[in-house]
């Protein structure tokens, strides 16, 4: 099969051990990110399979209707709204996905929390600039670490945070609160109580139509002046412009952000990058070698199974 792999920013997919699974196929790998439909049609016109790296490239109805040779879309991770499932069904395109452990994202979340508390980036920059200590950091021990969402990654954040001595407080759907309480973690009395009580809040919510803009400007205004908001999930969970305005107003006092509404961010063209009280990373949560081996390995397995006439992990 002719396979296209777009958005390989690091030019790393061909170096993975799992890439051996593509032997016998014709594979085209693209490092750049393009959005113009005409260019995408030219790139994918004769392609039979597309391996998507998370949600980096969207495949909507208009684009899919102009790809007559496309037989299968194999998603790294779980499929989301970036693929028009109804159109795939209509055009006879198989969609398959897979899942990983989420450990890499949980680890980055904890890293961002610790780096924020200890002013790590500022202190490294200070030392590189010829100066010595200039800030007084804080420890995670005994802080109230709030985890909004108690899914796979949220559970890991709770466990790791607890091992550092943090006091865990969970908020989310009723089913999440029930499970968190069963696992021995404290749950907030209300959403407002959650935002008001936490020293650190980590957003671990899956983006759906129901959760879009679930964190509002009013929620952020309840946070402590020295509180930290961490988002390694999706930027759209926060009401548009609310975080920028909240950081300027001083509640919360700091944020660590790994996700943006439109990616990639090039030329430092995003308002959060201009704020001294925001630590921004380029969506690194799942970008880790072992994670990639799992995600791409499953994606290639999906294509091989489809080519053998025995499709697996099929969504439609």
Descriptive tags:
Rossmann fold; globular; 316 residues; 2 domains; 5-stranded parallel sheet; 7-stranded parallel sheet; 12 strands; alpha/beta
Molecular structure report:
With 316 residues, this protein is α/β, with parallel strands linked by helices. The protein folds into two domains: 2-101 and 288-307, NAD(P)-binding Rossmann-like Domain (Rossmann fold), CATH 3.40.50; 103-280, NAD(P)-binding Rossmann-like Domain (Rossmann fold), CATH 3.40.50.720. It is 33% helix and 15% strand. Helix 3 links the parallel strand 4 and strand 5 (94-96). Helix 4 (103-117) crosses helix 6.
The class by helix and strand makeup works out as alpha/beta
The H-and-E topology, N to C, reads as EEHEHEHEHHEHEHEHEHEHEEH
In terms of DSSP E residues, the strand content is 15-25%
Total separate domains: 2
Mean pLDDT: 97
The main sheet comes to: 7 strands, parallel
Q: Percent range for helical residues?
A: 25-40%
CATH topology of the largest domain: Rossmann fold
Number of strands: 12
Count of alpha/pi helices:
11
- In the CATH scheme, the class of the largest domain would be Alpha Beta
* Largest sheet, spatial ordering of strands: 8-7-6-9-10-11-12
Q: Cα-atom Rg, whole angstroms? A: 21 Å
Query: Cα distance, first to last residue?
Result: 20 Å
Multimeric state of these chains? single chain
């Amino acid at each position: 099969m002719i396979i296209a792999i777009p958005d390989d920013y690091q030019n790393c997919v061909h170096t993975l051990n799992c890439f051996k699974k593509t032997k016998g196929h014709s594979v085209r790998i693209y490092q750049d990110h393009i959005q113009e439909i005409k260019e995408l049609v030219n790139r994918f016109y004769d392609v039979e399979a597309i391996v998507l790296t998370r949600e980096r490239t969207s495949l909507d109805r208009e684009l899919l209707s102009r790809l007559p040779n496309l037989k299968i879309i194999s998603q790294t991770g779980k499929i989301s709204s970036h693929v028009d499932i109804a159109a795939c069904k209509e055009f006879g395109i198989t969609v398959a996905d897979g899942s990983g452990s989420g450990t890499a994202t949980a680890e980055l979340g904890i890293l961002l929390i610790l780096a924020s508390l200890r002013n790590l980036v500022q202190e490294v920059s200070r030392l590189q600039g010829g100066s010595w200590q200039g800030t007084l950091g804080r420890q995670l021990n005994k802080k109230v670490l709030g985890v909004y969402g108690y899914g796979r990654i949220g559970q890991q954040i709770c466990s790791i945070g607890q091992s550092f001595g943090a006091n865990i407080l969970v908020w989310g759907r009723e089913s999440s609160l029930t499970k968190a309480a069963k696992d021995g973690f404290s749950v907030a009395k209300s959403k407002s109580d959650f935002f008001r009580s936490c020293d650190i809040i980590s957003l671990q919510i899956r983006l759906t139509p129901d959760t879009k803009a679930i964190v509002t400007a009013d929620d952020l205004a309840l946070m402590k002046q020295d509180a930290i908001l961490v988002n390694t999930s999706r930027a759209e969970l926060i009401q548009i412009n609310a975080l920028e305005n909240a950081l300027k107003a001083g509640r919360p006092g700091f944020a660590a952000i790994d996700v943006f509404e439109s990616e990639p961010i090039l030329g430092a063209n995003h308002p959060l990058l201009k704020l001294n009280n925001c630590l921004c990373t380029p969506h690194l949560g799942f970008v880790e070698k072992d994670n990639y081996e799992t995600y791409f390995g499953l994606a290639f397995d999906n294509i091989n199974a489809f080519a053998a006439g025995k499709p697996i992990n099929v969504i439609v």
